[in-house]
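tool=predict chain=A
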Amino acid sequence: MSGQTEIMWGEEAKEKVVAAQATEWPEYNLNLVYDFASGLSKPREEFGFGFGFLAFKDVFHNYFLPETLSNLVNSTEKERKSGSIKRGDLFLTRTSETQEELGMSSVALKDYPDATFNGFTKRLRPKGTIEVLPEFAGFFFRSPKFRAEVTSMSSVTTRASLNNEMMSALKITVPSLPEQRAIANVLSCLNDKIDLLHRQNATLEALAETLFRQWFVEQAKEEWEEGKLGDVINVKGGTTPSTKESEFWEGNVHWTTPRDLSNHTSVFMFDTERKITEKGLAKIGSGLLPIGTVLLSSRAPIGYLAITNIPLAINQGYIAIICDKLVSNYFMFLWCKVNLEEIKSQGNGSVFQEISKSTFKEMKFTIPPKLLIEDFDVLVEPYFEKIRINQTQIRTLSTLRDTLLPKLMSGEVRVAY
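tool=predict ok
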């Protein structure tokens, strides 16, 4: 077709995406398309038993609601009726620490019998007068266009917030049903592949952890030497270059805080939110840490874990584990996962819990035979390498999805249907 460009990305996505002149799609204020409802607030002791409950994190991290809700709440019949979850329901986070995290969305693709949703989100239930496919809505409300609208009108005091009046002023663009379906199919192909790779990685990580528990916990020998973590690893800390000195910032050196791991979903770290200059790096005593360093967040909270896939510097919220003695980084990553509660118990502090580098190095460590550690590494290394390859694919597919998403939602790129 003259003047049109097809974009293809593999066997999973057969839809034709073409660049074309957009026709005008109608826009509607959200209050014309959806009815708004508030969620359920309960004291802590009412959670952990009862009926399904849609938690804030389930909305925040997912375009579409998870197949199974991760929480339970002791809800009444009246609460379950007023706070129900049905196919097509849209959930928006109504309050957050920052504007950028406000109004994150997730859409239900099925009914969730007897389930309710949390009070930090708003439920937007379709009125039925203007038809919006749930599969389309899931992508539209994560598009940069809608996200920019939310950010521009949110109010920030101590927390960013959205109220009904503000949500009523937000708009949804509604293509024809066939075009909604075609757009959703294109983006779903990418999302499904990303989801499959995430699930593969979760399985591989669980297998590696199971093997670690079998070899070094369940089958541990009494004759193994007792030592300390500092006997088998080196640890380093970091700092934050002065934010008042512009010459330290916006450079090419990766620099990480535990915030980078707050939404981390797998083993390896490929990027950081902020970067510093060489002058900024010179202010950090630990310098540039090598690829393969195990990062453990040491405060706010204790316990985020990752293995670096890039050289980087760290702030004061990490313990960096350098595995240049007896054990590998894969071994230490799994050791930290298995012993995470013990690590957390070593923390102290009046404002927030923190574990120091010296305390971490003094933690007890049972030292297995060197040959056993080497045999274990040979066994689990393919698992971690597959996870790394999958994460690389996830990044590529996510970039493609995030590039297509605003173009499809604005009509700049159109789908043949």
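The radius of gyration is 24 Å. The mean pLDDT is 91.
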